[in-house]
Amino acid sequence: MNTPYIIDDQEGGRFKVARNTFTSQEVFEQERDRIFQNCWLYLGHESELSKPGDFVARSVAGQNLLFVKGRDGVIRALFNVCPHRGATVCREKKGNSKSFQCMYHGWVFKNTGEIAHLSGEPAYEDNFKDDGNCDLRHVPHFDQYAGFYFVAFKKEIEPLADYLAGAKEYLDIVANQSAAGMEIIGGTQEYSIGANWKLLVENSVDGYHAEATHATYLDYLMNTNGSLTATRLAGKGHDLGNGHAVIEYSAPWGRPIAQWIPMWGETGKAELDRVYAELVERLGEDKAKQMATLNRNMIIFPNLVINDIMAITVRTFYPTAPNEMMVNGFALGVIDESDWRREYRLSNFLEFIGPGGFATPDDVEALEQCQRGFQSAANVPWNDISKGMKAKTPSFDDEVQMRAFWREWNRRMTSEEG
Ligand code: FES
Ligand SMILES: [Fe+2]
Question: Which of 40, 196, 303, 360 is most solvent-facing, going by the fewest CB within 10 Å?
């Protein structure tokens, strides 16, 4: 592409993104190398591996990985690829196992990744498996922050804690909602969208679209007795550095941690008061208030979204083509919450966030409409992301968070090192 990807006119308060960044095959291929091979990418949450032997097989940027807790209690990220001739070793999505057997020629690996049984061993040299040559390979970089595990494939990469920059503070808020910890609940929402992956980055932190796109859901809440409080939608957007960003805002809906709505009755109120008092005692008044009463939609560059709204969703997505992505969404909850709080969290996860719910289908429709609009990119070439560009403290429904993402995306896509 000869035209720039973005126009960042800070003086004039104008920010434009070229629409062919969403349609170009060349950009799609460069993203594979410059973005997905070069960044820390989310693999999974510590709660998914509670016991030795627990494993989750997951695809990250098109690579099959095994996220596994070994019999030694150590959590590892291994390539789920046979060192012999390349077959996928573990073909189950999750479970608990002492070992994994490759279906092709029967090599068996311990849950630490070491070879346990080399079929036909006498035909190999005596020391054949002593140098690790027969073990499952480790992902080059693997680290965690606040229970969120990440991998990176590049040889040289900054430490995860540096990479996460200002996002750490907000990950802490999501991770500390109970002294007992947080857990991924149940299975995965998996769906595809006929749109470029960067449209979902924008949409996941877009406070500007709710009233128009989600009018049906807001109507539904307004017509459901006791489902709202008097709190109004208000808040800020923050650039967290390195392409990460968050919007943080108050909203009238209930939050099981811990914003009460009349629907939950007096007993519910007494319980949430106790939950709130515990937060204040553990974290102080300011943090407790921020955690309980403010919603957060966060993007961790390039493709981890954590939306701590009514329920909490942890979501990743990868492009399969310039105009298609695969999405995985997980529900995160407080480990020791009561049944009714858990039920509200999960029904919200289905009813608002789920692919068959009240919100995501509307978002999907909006994204697919944009992708269709980009067919005219040659004639109508630019997206506009200027809202609130001159604001001292950008509002949650401005577009500072999208500009943060795009500046980092552009830097990586155009830097000399590649
Ligand atoms: S490819 Fe796995 S044992 Fe041969
Ligand atoms: Fe939305």
Answer: 360
